[in-house]
Write a structure and sequence with these properties.
It is a single chain. This protein has helices at 14-37, 62-65, 76-81, 90-95; strands at residues 44-49, 57-60, 70-75, 103-109, 114-120. It has one domain (7-120). The chain has 4 helices and 5 strands. The protein is globular, with a radius of gyration of 13 Å. The mean pLDDT is 89. By secondary structure, it is α+β, with helices and mostly antiparallel strands. A 5-stranded mixed sheet has the order 2-3-1-4-5.
C-alpha cells in the first residue's frame, strides 16, 4: 500500500473530505495532541468513513454534525494489529510520517476506495 497522497483522491473525494476536515479539524487536532500527550501512540490516524467501521473510536458522528464522513480516532499500532497496515511495513509507514502538529494522517474508507492521505491543518 502506498502511504502518499493518491491522485484518485482528487475529484470524487477531495472536495467532501476537505470540507468535512475543515469543519472537524479543531476536534481532530486536539484528539491527535491527546493521543500523543497521553503516550497512547506517536502516530495518530483518523479514519474518515461514510459508514460505521470497527477502526478506532468514534470521534465525530457525521449525522450529528451534518457532515458526509464519520471520523474515528485510531493510531498506527492498532491499525497494524488489525492488519490494515502490514506490521512488516510499519517502519515504511513511520518513514513517511509528517509532523502531526501540522498534518493529519487520514485513512479514507469508502466502498471503492481506501487509502492513507495527509492533509495540512488549516492555518489559524
Amino acid at each position: 500500500m502506498d502511504y502518499f497522497n493518491d491522485p484518485e483522491l482528487n475529484g470524487k473525494y477531495l472536495g467532501t473530505i476537505t470540507k468535512d476536515f475543515a469543519t472537524a479539524s479543531d476536534t481532530i487536532k486536539e484528539a491527535s495532541y491527546q493521543i500523543r500527550k497521553r503516550e497512547i501512540s506517536q502516530y495518530p490516524v483518523f479514519v474518515f468513513a461514510r459508514q460505521a467501521v470497527q477502526l478506532g473510536s468514534l470521534l465525530i458522528n457525521a449525522d450529528e454534525q451534518e457532515l458526509q464522513w464519520h471520523v474515528f480516532a485510531s493510531y498506527l499500532e492498532i491499525l497494524a494489529q488489525q492488519g490494515i497496515v502490514d506490521p512488516e511495513k510499519a517502519e515504511d509507514f513511520i518513514g513517511t510520517w509528517k509532523n502531526p502538529d501540522e498534518f493529519c494522517c487520514l485513512f479514507v474508507v469508502d466502498e471503492e476506495f481506501t487509502n492513507f492521505v495527509y492533509i495540512p491543518y488549516p492555518e489559524d
